[in-house]
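Re-run with default settings, no changes from the original entry. Doing this only to confirm the output is reproducible before filing.
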Amino acid sequence: MLNSAYRAQCEAEEARHTPDCATRNTKLTLLALALGTFAIGTGEFGSNGIIQLFAADMGISIPQATYAVTAYAVGVMIGSPVITIVAARLNRKQLLLALILLFIVGNLLSALSANVGMLIAARFITGTVQGAYFGAGAVVAAYVYGPGKGGKAFATVMAGLTIATIVGSPLGTFVGQQAGWQALYVVVAVIGLAAGAAILLWVPATSDLDGGPIAQELGALRRPMVWVIMVVAALGISSIFAVYTFIGPYVTDAARADESLIPVALAVFGVGMAVGNQVGGRLADRYAYRGLVLGYGSVLLFLIAIAATGETIWLLMPALFGVGATMMLAIPTIQVLLTKNAPEAPTLMGALNLASLNLANALGAVGGSITLGAGLGTLSTAWAGLVLTVAGLLLFAITVRHAVPPRRVETTAAAA
């Protein structure tokens, strides 16, 4: 989700609106946007680290607790395209502020939830923000950075999400362990408030950031290959969530380690994602499909390693790193494929990519819950992820691989 993944999107936005010179507060604008993605990522990934806590507090099983994670993912799937389309003409600064406000409300409702039903509703509301925020953030980032640098700008914005997986989620989990699971959502709401203030102060108020025609965005939805790529993404990437959602039980129940190692495991996974993201971006620049094939194929080995050896903590940790790294190899390629199939609707393609990734979140959580509910053991969720990724790889081989000749993708001068 760095430069390479969103290059086509940012280039399209640059062509639509570009200022005569870079905005005076370019760095502060990018910092404001990145703070928002950091808050969103910390809330999303941090929720996985406190599943055991709110499950115990509400007197429900871990499979039942994963419904809250699934609800967030469903919120992204529905909210990303719907908000992007409905708000197509809205000024992007105004849209970002409205989304941050909704994000704050959703997290405060999460903290106030007295039962799992309330928590599910609150997480759904919060999830509707994500895709539209990232899409609008791409527009603003490309605008303030100037010609030929939109991808680099968006890489800076997306750094907030990467930092969230390495720092925000583990720290959020630690806060939840020390002060109660509700504290995570309060902290995330406060970060969201800071991001909103930064956006208000540092994102330029200009008509150049006004939206475009709704019909242009909707036209992309008539292309079958867009939907096929989304399904390939949802199935394949689901294994990352079949593992990440259950890292807490992996550490304490399967490996029988102290819960203090859960934040460490989350950070290890996050570092793997960051490394894979960087390599995956370069592969997406150079090759049409290599990042996806390598990512989907390689993760199967690490999933088998978790299922077979995850009861040993020092074997579990590198396997978690491997799952995060290999799956992130594929995500930039998926974004490039989506945008190349609908270049006239880059903002919607960015939102749809996030929608498909959160469908993967839901599939991974549900698949893992099914194996747990069947009594197959804590580490069985890795097998659920393996089955889903194999399905995605097979669908890719049958459909997408033959839709466009497997050619070398030319890089542009906008490389970061």
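The chain has 18 helices and no strands. Residues 150-179 form the longest helix (30 residues).
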